[in-house]
Amino acid sequence: MNKEFYIRTFGCQMNVADSERIKSLLLRDGYQETANPEEANLIILNTCAVRKHAEDRALARLNSLKHHKKKNPKLIIGLFGCIPTLYGEKLLEQFPHLDILCGPNGIGRIESLLDEAKEGKKAVALKEENGLLNAGCILAENKKKTFLPIMKGCDNYCSYCVVPYTRGRERSKPSSQIMEEIKNLTKQGVKEITLLGQNVNSYGKGLSERIDFAGLLKLADGIEGLERIKFMTSHPKDISQNLLETIASGKKVEKQLHLPVQSGSDLVLKRMNRGYAVADYKRIVKNARELIPGISISTDIIVGFPGEKEKDFQETLELLAEIRFDFIYAFKYSDRPKTAASSFEGQVQEKEKERRLEEVFKAYKKAS
Ligand code: SF4
Predict the structure, then answer these.
(1) 23 and 121 share a domain?
(2) For the whole model, what pTM was predicted?
(3) What is the pLDDT of residues 230-257, one digit of tens each?
(4) Which ligand 1 atom sits closest to the C-alpha of 154?
(5) Of 249, 275, 305, which residue constitutes the final position of a domain?
(6) Measured in angstroms, how far is the CA atom of residue 159 from the centroid of ligand 1?
(7) What is the 3-state secondary structure (H, E, C) of the chain?
(8) Among 218, 249, 280, residue at a domain's last position
(9) 159: Cβ below 6 Å to ligand 1?
């Protein structure tokens, strides 16, 4: 039987890493990857629910796959990632051509899900909790760089963010497992690894060993064969002096920090439930620049958060001018189900969000 699969990934680096894992499990199971969905007997969409736009694109793609299924009734279609955990089994009614629904924590069950789908059943894995711990690290193709998740989920519940509802509670991998995985990857020729977590600065919470993210970076820095270590994402409320010193002293640690600020207004940060004030953020950046000369600092910004007044927005522009980021990722606020902010008053009009987004990019360019 033809065992060719096609996979399309939407969203963040964590999803890219999840897709790598899906690929490696399928290759181990005798599948081959194809870039042409017409040739595939298995099509996987690994989806993102962080913004409505990404969700709409993924679901439109899923809808269009019904034509493939008509042409090839043996085709298995799997919806993976954050959309399945956000909306659950009702997606199977909405898209009857869908065979597999699998959340980020169910990837380890892919073989049994495929077996069920081949028997004509609807296969569902939305709640498995051990997905990350079983993570494999066989690369689907020869690569010099790769992502490596060191933790899963998030406990922060920023009021705009759907991740705690789609990826579950935060859980760290034991450091011994991460080191094993890094060694394995370097044996396969990898030179650069990006350690991934929704909030790497809280790495180690809940583990029986006493380790934090700085400790993990030090261990990784000593691994032979590895040439460069990057990491993301850092949460300003959890960044420690020890971590900044470790970035400064690490021989292989890239001198860069992606530190999402989201807004330059204390009022908005409070409503976002971010756990820091603008002054705290400025202090961290000043400290990082003093300790690590030449460090590259990037950030995320959300414009048009519910209740963001013109004055709040101007404070974001002032922050951009003052900090002079090396790079920014800026987005219009996107209303997401289950999040606290979706019921907040003061939703900002789409046109106004667009104007603010343009202004943000202009301010960034002017400052850089
Ligand atoms: S830290 Fe906040 S924004 Fe980041 S994943 Fe967790 S809840 Fe979402």
Answers:
(1) yes
(2) 0.91
(3) 999 999 999 999 999 999 999 999 999 9
(4) 6
(5) 249
(6) 9
(7) CCCEEEEEECCCHHHHHHHHHHHHHHHHCCCEECCCHHHCCEEEEEECCCCHHHHHHHHHHHHHCHHHHHHCCCCEEEEEEHHHHHHCCHHHHHCCCCCEEECHHHHHHHHHHHHHHHCCCCEEECCCCCCCCCCCCCCCCCCCEEEEECEECCCCCCCCCCHHHHCCCCEECCHHHHHHHHHHHHHCCCCEEEEECCCHHHCCCCCCCCCCHHHHHHHHHCCCCCCEEEEECCCHHHCCHHHHHHHHHCCCECCEEECCCECCCHHHHHHHCCCCCHHHHHHHHHHHHHHCCCCEEEEEEEECCCCCCHHHHHHHHHHHHHHCCCEEEEEECCCCCCCHHHHCCCCCCHHHHHHHHHHHHHHHHHHC
(8) 249
(9) no
